[in-house]
Amino acid sequence: MNITKNLAWPLLLISPLAIASSLNNEDFDLDALMGMDVQATSAMKRAQSAFDTASSIYVLSKEQITNSGAMSVPEALQLVPGLIVRKLDNNQWAITARGVASRYSSKLLVMIDGQSLYSPQFAAVYWEALNVPLYDIERIEVIRGQGGLLWGSNANNGVINIITKHSLDTRNGYADFSLGNQIKHDANIRYGGDIGNKGSYRIYAHFNDGKASKDGTIYRDEIITPVDTAEQYAFGFRTDFTPNNEWDVLLQGDITYSKLAQNLRAAIDETNTNLAFSENFDRTDTRLMARVDNRISNTANQMLQLSWLKQSGTELYLKEDFESIDIDYQMNFIYSSVQLDWGLNYRYNAVNSEEGIVFTSDKDIHFLEQYGGLFQMQYSVVPDSVDLIVGTKLEHNDLTGWQNQPSARLTYKPVANHLAWGAVSRSVRIPMLLEYDYNFKVSGIELSRLLGESTGIPQLDNYRIETFLNGNDEVDSETYVSYELGYRFSNNYWSIDLSLYKTEGENVVAYTSNFEDQSAQFLPALALLQANQFELAGLALTTTKLELDVVSAAEATTNGGDFVLAWQAAKNIKMELGYSYTDLTYDLPLGTTPAIGYNSTNRQLFAKADYSPFTNHAVLATIRIENSNAYNTNNYAALDITWNWLVDSHWSVGLTGKNLFAGSHLEFNNVSETYTIPNYIDENFALTISANF
Q: CB–CB of 257/232 below 8 Å?
C-alpha cells in the first residue's frame, strides 16, 4: 500500500461515528455489502474496507435491519450468518459466536458506538434490556473471533458493535406502530433537526408491551405456565456538533425501564431443591456517552471518549446495581508507509449486589478498576499486495493483575478482488464476580446419591444436602490463543467469505464435583442412623452442607469455520448462503465439570433472499437450520419472512412472520447454566405501519 493511495487517510482516521455521518444511504445496500466495500471500524478501530480486513467480519446494513421487520437487536442479529442466536422465552436470549451460547454472553463483547455494555458481576449482557431504536442504527458490525487487542478483555469469541446514525441523517419526524400475536403494541417516535449551522440533534421514545408465550414447558414433571411478558419504556437523544473542519463532538444518552416477567428456578427453602417460581424483574438502564474527534493534520487524528453506564435490577431474591465509567483515548497517524494506532483506557466499575437467600459474598467487593493501553502497527510489506498488522493490548484489572493480548495478522492480495489473510492472537476473559467471590446456593445433592446406597428410609434417601457453588479468589483469567485463516473474493455479481479457525483455551473455569473429601461431615448422621436414631440423624443432616468450588483447571479446544456466499441473482434478487461449524472439546481434570456447555458440535445452515417483485415492494426472507447437541434441544429450521410496501413518500406498511414451519420448539434448555426456565418458541406474526413527516 503506497503513500499516494493513502492521501485520503485523514478521513479514514476519523472515529466510527464521524465516518458514518459522511456516508450516503447507497453505501450500505446489499450490493455494497456483496462487494465488501463497506467501511467497517470495529476490526481495526479505524475505518477500513471490510474486504481488506484480516478478520471474519460481517456488516449488517440498516436496509436489511429495516426490511427484516425486527423489533429488537437480538432479532436483528438473527440476520447474521454464523452467529448463534437462541431464544429462551419471549424476553430472554442466548447469543454468541464460535462457542456455546449461554444466558449471559460472557465471551462476547457487545458495544453501542464503542461503549461497552459488559457487567463484571455475571459477565452479563442483558439482551432483554438492550433498547436501541432499530430505525436509528447505521449498521451492526459483527466480528466472529477474537478482538482483545483493540477492545480489551472478554472479547474472546467475538465483538458486536452497534453503530447508530449521525443526527444529520435523522433531521425529520418518524413514527411506527406494531401489533401482533405476541405483542400488544410496540410504538416508536423520533424527531430531529438542526442546531444552528454547526450541529444537529434527535430525540426519541419507545413503548413496548409484549404478550406471554403460548406454550410453557415441563419442569420436574410440572407444567410451567409461561409468564414471559415484557413492558418497556425508553427515551433517548443524540446531538452532533462540527464547529470547524478539525473538530467533531458527539453527545448521546438514553434511559430504559423494563418490567420483565420470567419463570425462574432456585433453591429458596429448607428442602434445598430448585423450586419453580414466577417473578417480575424490574430493570432501569441508563447510558451517557460523549466523544470528541480532532483531526490534527493530514496524517494524524485523535479521539477522546467518555461514557457512563448504570444498570439496576430488582427481583424477589436478587438485587443488583452496577455502574461504570469509561475513559478512552486513541491516536492514529501515518508515517511513511506505516499506519500506527495507540491508545489508553480506564474503567471504573461500582458494584452493589445485596446478599440474600440465593447468594452471599466473601470479600464484599464494591468497586473494580481496569486500565491499560494498546499499540498497533500496520506495515505495507509489498505495496498494494502484502500488509502486516502487529500489536498488543496490555491491561490491568483488580482481580487477576496484568494481562497481555498480542496479535499478528497478515493480508495478501494477489489481485484486486482476491484476498487471503491469516492471524494469530491471544485474548483474555477476566473472572466474573460469581466465579471470584460470590457463593450461590444451588440445588442440593440427594443423600442416597452421595452414599452410593440406600438407607432404607425414603425421607432420608431423598433428602437433599444444602449445596453451594463457591467463588474462588485463586481463579485466574481464562486465556485463548486463536489461529485463523481466511479467503475472500468479490466482483459485481457475487462474493465469497471463508474463514477457518482453531482456538486453544487455558485456565478455563470449571466446577469441582468430587465430594469424597467432604464425606467426614456425614459420619455423625450415619452413626445415628446405625443406632436407629432417625430423627436425630435427620436433624444432623440439616447442619451439613456441600461445597462446589470454582477452579481454573480446564482446557478447551474449539475448531470450526464460517462460509458466506453472496449472489446478485438478478437485478431485483439478492441472496446469501452461509454455513458455520463449531466443535468444542474440553480437557477436564478428574472430578470437575465445565461451567458453560460441554463437548459439543454446532452446525448452522443459513440462507437469505432480498426480492423486489414490484416497484415499492420488497420481501426479505431468511431461514436458519440449527443442528447442535449443545443445548439439550431438538434440531430445528425456522423461516422468517417480511413483506414491506412503500405506500408513498410518507407511509409504509410491513407484515412479518417469524419462526414459520419450526412449530412449537425449545431453542435453549441448558437449565444447569441459568436460573431461567425456558419456554417453547412459537410462530410470531406482526403488522407494522411507519410514517415519515
A: yes
Scored b (16 or more CB within 10 A) or e, 675-691 reads: bbbbbbbbbbebebebe
Low-confidence stretches of the chain (pLDDT < 70) are 1-37, 43-44, 514, 516, 519
Residue 462 lies in a domain: no
The CATH number of residue 624's host domain is 2.40.170.20
Nearest of 2, 50, 41 to residue 22 by alpha carbon: 41
Domain assignment present for residue 396? The answer is: yes
Q: How many independent structural domains does the chain possess?
A: 1
* 76: in domain: no
Angle between helices 523-530 and 534-541 (to 10 degrees): 170
Q: Which three cell numbers mark 30?
A: 446489499
Cα separation, 424 vs 410, in Å, equals 9
Q: Contact 238/250 with Cβ under 8 angstroms?
A: yes
d(CA 556, CA 597): 11
Q: Is residue 555 helix, strand or coil?
A: strand
Q: How many Cβ atoms sit within 10 Å of the Cβ of residue 236? A: 21
- Nearest in space to 106 (alpha carbons), one of 115, 98, 118: 118
Range of the structural domain that residue 481 is part of: 168-437+473-513+544-692
pTM over 0.85: yes
- Decide if 380 contacts 337 (C-beta within 8 A): yes
Give whole-number Cα distances, 295 to 19, 163, 189, 327, 646, in Å. Answer: 12, 21, 35, 19, 40
Cell numbers describing residue 11: 478521513
Q: Is residue 429 assigned to a domain?
A: yes
Distance CA 98, CA 484 (A): 12
Cα–Cα distance, 353 to 311 (Å, whole number): 11
Cα dihedral 659, 664, 669, 671, rounded to 10, equals 120
State the amino acid at position 407 in one-letter form: S
List pLDDT tens digits, range 46-81: 778 888 899 999 999 999 999 999 999 999 999 999
